[in-house]
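To assess whether the prediction recovers the assembly geometry, we first specified each molecular entity separately, as shown.
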Amino acid sequence: MADAAAHPPARALRARESRQRRTAWALAAPALALMVLILLVPVGVAGALSFTDYSLGNPGFDWVGTENYEKLFTRSTYARMFTATFTYVLTVVPLSVALGLGAALLINSLTHLRELYKTIYFLPVMATLIAMAIAWEFMLHPSIGVINQTLAKGCGTWLEALWPWLAGHCAEGMPLWLGDKRYAIWVIAFVGVWQGFGFNMVLYLAGLTSVHRELYHAAEMDGAKSAWERFRLVTWPALGPTTVFVVTISCIRAFQVFDTIEAFYPIGAGPGKTAYVMMYAIYEKGIEQNLIGIGAAITMLFLVFVMMITVVQRWLVERKVHY
Amino acid sequence: MAELALTDISKSFGDTQVLSGISLDIADGEFVSLVGPSGCGKSTLLRIIAGLETQGAGSVTIAGQDVSATRAADRNLSMVFQSYALYPHLSVGENIAVPLRMRRLTAAQRLPILGRALPGARARNAEIAAAVQEAARVLEIDALLDRKPGQLSGGQRQRVALGRALVREPAAFLLDEPLSNLDAKLRVQTRAEIAQLHRRLGATVIYVTHDQGEAMTMSDRIAVMMDGRILQCAAPGVVYDDPDDIRVAEFIGSPKINILPIEISAGRVRLMEHDLGGAHRVADQPARMGLRPEALRLAGADAPLAGHVVHAENLGAELYAQLVLEGLETRVTLRAEPRERTRLTIGARVELGFDPAHAVYFDAQGQRMRFGLTPARQPAMAG
Amino acid sequence: MTRDWWKHLILILGAIIVIAPFYTMVSYSLKSPGEIDRGEGGFFGRQEIMVDEQCVKLRDPNRDEVEAAALRFPGQSQNAIREALLEEARAECSSRPVVFNYTQAFTQAPLLRYLLNGVIVTVSIFLIQIVVALPAAYALAKLRFWGREAVFGLVLFCLLIPVHAIALPLYIMLAKLGFTNTYAALVIPWTISVFGIFLMRQFFMTVPDDLIDAARMDGMSEFAIVWRVMLPTAIPALLAFAIFSVVAHWNDYFWPRIVVTGNRDLFTPPLGLREFKGGGDGNMFGPMMASATVIVLPLIVAFLLAQRRFIEGITLSGMK
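The predicted structure of the complete assembly is given in tokenized form:
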């Protein structure tokens, strides 16, 4: 007591500190609570439910162990799911990254019309995907779609000789596109690339502005004569961090594909379930069929994929920290 | 190494004329500095020599060959950039190796991993590694070869940039303000090293700087540039003592040269009321006189100039005092001995004398007037 | 320019593919069903007066109506009156295809209601995100307190979890609480934007401490500092985040699809469009594309007006 009286400032300081601590926690509390309730608890819930046979509306449930996961890795439906998902991701990611980079390099090297191209290529990123999917569906319509009508014009011309694929379809009828097992997933992937590459392009354009101009001059002085050599020596390494980021975000977005598939196939995820991607499976099993256990198992698997991608990304970023 | 010649180089960006009619011959093994204030066109000129910029008119000749139409990569020049321009993803060793890899290896041999297996690649790579080692040893950066540029200090990066230029044997080295990003102490040290390196290699060097001190200490010749022209190109001592133009006189030397107005009439040169001497066959005109701070002396009562001390800087070995002159209201700088500081207290009135033969004279347009000054009727130098 | 012709050629070809579906969408929204079917009429269609047969059928006069109309057509036979009435119906059911398509878009389904829902949902989401994220970001950036590192670590971890991925457990939790088919269900999962917290924290780190200390000297509480000092400094970052958030949620289809079932009053624009598609027959292509155009248009127009900000906002995530 005497001590406290002798040093009132110390006590006041402590009081001030604890007051500041309380304020800080009060400021962070709503966010913290929502983070736990909306993000962490559901992950836990999904994890727990993935080991049950729970259905919404049922009073109780049974623990079924790893049965749901075993189903995921044994049933052919889910084999199709993995095929569709990885086909989509492994097509869309490299293509949208490459096209994004290509467009950015071309646009960056221009002196005129840069803004115009940038605006046009960015339009699909902004547009409501489901609306654009319906527009694509019209264009891909087997009889009245503009794509088949255009292709049909090539029939009976020299194009047929040059392009065996066209000749084949001229003979046996134009492709059904979305209705054809052979094309469905590729068409969906095409729409995915169409929608996503403008986003990557913009990120690459931002990355290009940060490349030091003098490096190109140094490369020229060092004897890098072709555009390709300068790209290899200066541009591509400088875009490394951008590429890591672009690939990651493209992957995560590609894994989440749903809108286009639902728009093209309100039921059934495409001919022969060729477009049965994971998000669609979660929706179909978990929500439509009320098989929550299996839906939760797919959810967990999905989260594992996404986390793996991000962990790889962070590792790559750490590794290049000494840039 | 080779000689270099510029003939009548002009360049404009849009409406602004950046360079007009630059001609300059640089001998084999010579160290020439292009010096001038920012915006004088010196960097543009260097880039035209390098081939990174195309001249509007005129030609660049290297070793007797006109390279005006040759691209930068084929001119066989090395360049050190102001920002160093090191490849951030490559290690120091790889950075230094780039000019050799680009020139000595084929595209296929440069492929990662695969390229090493190609015929001839092994021997070439060993050769390149040895050259890199040698360059690194000369610059004392052998310990840093595995580091990335991001892990180096400014001075170390600067050496790596030098190493990348040094590793091959170019016709000439072009250095674009290579020291401007270093701190003052390191700058003094590095400029001595660059000068030594030049002597050892006997290389032709073109060095761009805005710092006249760097130019003075390193060069065989200095080309002082202003407004897109070379005003004078001569040895450092000549440029300092015998400037052709008042702008050269003002740019070279620190502290700046003192400029005082004079009057030439009836063959006499006058500073205020003082007769400095006779100038034969010089037309009557108002003119200016340049006096280096060290040309001024503290003098006795009958000296031509007098003023009040407004500021004094004692640097230990020497003392610079700034005075406002009576009758002229201009400031002049005087170099004095530290022991004279007792006379140079702030506010003190002092008399200044000088030898008119040590002054330089310029006409109203700033052109140098060279005339034999006959002695004054009464001696200006007194005390 | 001439040297770059091949670049322009490639980019123009790309631009054609990029624009094609937009072209189709707008063009279909202008054309009559016949023109769509036969693929004629260019971009605008011929805009010939067309008769909506469905509308005429609905107005097919019955006996009572014919008798009631007898006064207007004195001395004519029943059949003649019937014909005259049908003719009137035809005339009233005739319109230009553009008018037809866009009227249908707004009358077949409550499109205005959908648009309003879209505005309500996106605006509420954004406002709540700011109210939640801003104080937390301030605390993480500028206040020193025990546990700060742990909280920030949690933020970084949560950045890994896409909300769409955990839609199923979220749906179950909301269903248990009886929230499905409410505005709350549409908004709640998005109230916490971990990315928003992260972004704002990074931004606040660059705000000088002196500014905050000055506010404290003026007697402001920490809460007041958040709203009266930090918020105004963060306007540019907030604007970019607003665009990011609004675009994402205006266009979101997956989550509304899960939590809104059947209740049209809660449909967001993408859901409304999907319903249109589900129920439409071949004649409805025009009106459907008209609704699609109406839904896509606001963002596109806003984008064209403020491109730089939009690109900045959408690529925000790239600026980490």
